[in-house]
Amino acid sequence: MTNSTLINENHIVLITGGNSGIGRALVEFYSEKKSIVYSLDLHHHDQDEGIDSQVRKITCDVTDEDAMSAVINEISAQVPYISTLLVNAGIVPNWSDTANLDITLFEKVLRINVLGAVITLKLAAPLMKRPGGSIIFTGSLNSWKGDPNIASYVASKHAIFGVVKSAALDLGRDGIRVNAVAPGPIATQALTDRVAKRCADDLTAIDQTFEKLRSVTALQRIATVGEVVSAIDFLASENSSGITGQLINVDCGVL
Ligand SMILES: NC(=O)c1ccc[n+]([C@@H]2O[C@H](COP(=O)([O-])OP(=O)(O)OC[C@H]3O[C@@H](n4cnc5c(N)ncnc54)[C@H](O)[C@@H]3O)[C@@H](O)[C@H]2O)c1
Q1: Using an 8 Å Cβ cutoff, are 147 and 194 in contact?
Q2: 39 lines ligand 1 (CB under 6 A)
Q3: 107-135 residue pLDDT tens
Q4: More exposed terminus of the chain, fewer Cβ within 10 Å: N or C?
């Protein structure tokens, strides 16, 4: 991965959903750069060696405002500011067509993907006012485009772009930039498991699904976790100092 960001131990980053997938890759990336890394998640793997031993792990549900407030108070007692806030925790529901929507599940997706993200933003942004910083949400290509059978997720990720546009205006005067990345399908364990479930473990169907995902991109492949991390790191860095309120696609050119 490239070394695009000029950061050091004065760089303090809080990552939600840091236990797996994209969040986990971000934790590793910033740990390797010797940033102070707070990884927040519902649960954490047990590894306690190497990079893992340096990460400050916090177990918390992003939808619990009181618990999140206590976490942010604890962080503010340990460090003077947060430089980079990566609002990444999220869930993807099982597929359902409109007639069979489970309203309880719909509400849960909005609660975690939208309200959890907003609670994180509300509570952590004050810790960024001095010296300013960068907030990056993990949106999705579903922040700008629909897909069948997944209305709650599409609604939640569209909402995230709305929050980004509004928060960028609110926080800009404090020197805080707010952006989102919009990954296309990324072969994290979570996505691979979902595809396998939808294909009822039919290996041919799994291959066909990934082939279809590749075939609808300009580059004829799906983007990697590393490419998402690079885009986020760009938005975290001074290289993007003039960019705020934006959604940056990382999808190999979904057509
Ligand atoms: N993988 C993809 O194809 C893809 C594509 C576009 C966007 N995204 C987005 O990227 C983000 C990460 O996805 P991923 O594929 O790495 O998934 P993942 O399931 O591997 O990671 C999500 C993490 O969020 C945590 N989490 C979920 N609910 C939480 C809660 N209430 N409080 C705290 N932590 C919670 C989970 O425990 C998990 O560790 C999500 O916002 C997802 O919508 C993923």
Answers
A1: no
A2: no
A3: 999 999 999 999 999 999 999 998 899 99
A4: C
Interval between CA 112 and ligand 1 midpoint (Å) = 10
Is ligand 1 within 6 A of the CB of residue 115?
no
The predicted pLDDT at position 4 comes to: 40
CA–centroid distance, residue 79 to ligand 1 (Å): 26
Decide: 196 in ligand 1 pocket, CB within 6 A.
no
Q: Which residue has the higher pLDDT, 121 or 45?
A: 121
Cis omega before residue 126 (within 30°)? Answer: no
Per-residue pLDDT averaged across 213-242, rounded? 98
Per the CB < 8 A criterion, the answer to whether 11 and 83 are in contact is yes
Please state whether the predicted TM-score (pTM) of the whole model is above 0.70: yes
User: How many Å lie between the centroid of ligand 1 and the Cα of residue 88?
Assistant: 6
Ligand 1: residue whose CA is nearest its atom 7: 140
Mean pLDDT score of the chain: 94
CATH number assigned to the domain with residue range 12-184+224-250, chosen from the 4 options 3.40.50.720, 3.40.50.1820, 3.40.1380.20, 1.10.8.60: 3.40.50.720
Amino acid at 4: S
Q: What confidence score (pLDDT) does residue 202 get?
A: 82
Query: Using CA of residue 116, residue 138, residue 229, residue 22, what is the dihedral sign?
Result: positive
